[in-house]
Structures are given as structure tokens and as C-alpha cells.
Design goal:
This protein has 219 residues and is an alpha/beta fold. The chain has one domain: Rossmann fold. Helix 1 crosses helix 9 and helix 2 crosses helix 5. A five-stranded parallel β-sheet has the order 2-6-1-7-8. A three-stranded antiparallel β-sheet has the order 3-4-5, with helices on one face. Strand 4 and strand 5 form a beta hairpin. It has nine helices and eight strands. It binds 2'-deoxycytidine-5'-monophosphate.
Length: 219
């Protein structure tokens, strides 16, 4: 069984998906982390992402694995190296939208995601999980929040990584990234018509998880 949680950056998908997965005894999968790992890999090898042949060549040798053994978190491995923190940097955050919009990248990553999740119980968070990966999922959620709330949340994430901070710049980056992710040709960020919308702007963290949990219990 798969539960899908989609939405833009900073709406609370990761914390919600993790907590829901642990409540249900399911595995949690952060699909954005996989696009971040590909972005990190391309940058490490100075790939020109406008060259389809270079992109395809690198995807052929991509060795991306996810270790699910630690409790309530996942470890992203590139060639057996743990890159889970490295992929959260501002540099990768700024570059990932463009990489995730490339068709060969999406084909490869969606296939890996399917292979990983097909036979298990998963809470999967991303942008296209309820629309492309699992359009037939029984439980689909789409999280939204206002820009100020989202920018404050991102600020906290960056603080943990000691990145340079400016809440207005973060807010503008979110607006730009939403625009890019929602208007791209392939698998744009879009609410599935049958997804339940949860506005997390004024919710406590427990509230937002409980809203989803209650919905699943009821149905
Ligand atoms: O959730 P995140 O910020 O870690 O996602 C990073 C990027 O990956 C984001 O710009 C959109 C993209 N993404 C995607 O295209 N499809 C997904 N299922 C998840 C993320």
C-alpha cells in the first residue's frame, strides 16, 4: 500500500510523511532527495545538463541507493558514500529544479522509485507521486502553505546547515522554484484532482499529521 504526499517546497511534506510513516509502521520515501542526489552527481562530474548525451551517459553509471535501515530516516548513497546532508546545500537546492525537469532523469528516477516501492508499504513524498507514480493510490494528499510560513521553515533548514541566510531571498527563491516546477512540461507540480488538500500554514505539526491520519483511519 502506498500513501502519496505531494506539494511544493517548505509545505511540511517531509516531517509529515516521516511521522505518518512511523505511526502506520510504513516505510518513508523522500523522492526529492533522489533528484537532489542526481544533481549532486552531475555537478561533481561537471556535466553540461544541456547535453542529452552527457546526461544519459552519466545516468547509465549512476549508482544511487537508499538505505532504509535507520529508524525513521533514509540514507542516500551515491557510489556507497552517504550524501544525505550534502544534497541539502543551497547550491544543490538552486540547481535541482532544472535537473529534475530533464526527461532522461525523470525516466530513470521514476523507474528506481517504482522498483523500490512496488511491493511494500510506503508513505511517498514528492511532486508527482499522486499524478504520475501512483495515480491510482487510495490515499493521496496535497499539502499547501503560504509563502511566509514556507520561507521561515526553509530558513530553519538552512540554519542547520550553516548556510547564508536571508528570509526575503529564500521567499523569492521559493516563488521562482514553484513557478518553474509547476510550469515544466514533464510531470509538473500539480494537485491530483482526487487528492485531499491540507493547508499547513496555521497548523501545528501534530495537527497536520493527525488530520491525515484521521482521514486514513476513517476510510
Ligand atoms: O522536495 P525537494 O525540495 O527536496 O525537491 C527537490 C526538487 O526535486 C524540486 O525542485 C522538485 C523536484 N522533484 C520532482 O520534480 N519530483 C519529485 N517527485 C520530487 C521532487
Amino acid at each position: 500500500m502506498v500513501i502519496t504526499i505531494d506539494g511544493a517546497a517548505g509545505v511540511g511534506k517531509t516531517t509529515t510523511a516521516k511521522s505518518l510513516a512511523s505511526k502506520l509502521g510504513y516505510q518513508y520515501l523522500d523522492t526529492g532527495a533522489m533528484y537532489r542526489a542526481v544533481t549532486y552527481f552531475f555537478r561533481q562530474h561537471s556535466i553540461d545538463i544541456n547535453s542529452e548525451s552527457q546526461v544519459r551517459k552519466m545516468l547509465d553509471i549512476l549508482n544511487l541507493e537508499i538505505d532504509f535501515t535507520s529508524n525513521n530516516s533514509i540514507t542516500i548513497l551515491l557510489d556507497d558514500k552517504d550524501v544525505s546532508s550534502l544534497i541539502r546545500s543551497k547550491e544543490i537546492t538552486n540547481a535541482v529544479s532544472e535537473v529534475s525537469a530533464l526527461q532522461p532523469v525523470r525516466e530513470k528516477i521514476v523507474k528506481i522509485q517504482k522498483d523500490i516501492t512496488e511491493n511494500g508499504n510506503f508513505v511517498i513524498e514528492g511532486r508527482d507521486i499522486g499524478t504520475v507514480l501512483y495515480p491510482g493510490a487510495k490515499y493521496k494528499f496535497f499539502l499547501i502553505a503560504d509563502y511566509d510560513t514556507r520561507a521561515e521553515r526553509r530558513l530553519k533548514d538552512f540554519k542547520r546547515l550553516n548556510e547564508e541566510l536571508n528570509v526575503n531571498k529564500i521567499k523569492q527563491d521559493l516563488i521562482d522554484r514553484d513557478q518553474y516546477d509547476s510550469s515544466r512540461k514533464l510531470s509538473p507540480l500539480k494537485q491530483a484532482s482526487d487528492a485531499i488538500v491540507i493547508d499547513t500554514s496555521n497548523c501545528t505539526f501534530d495537527d497536520q499529521v493527525n488530520q491525515i491520519y484521521k482521514h486514513i483511519e476513517r476510510n
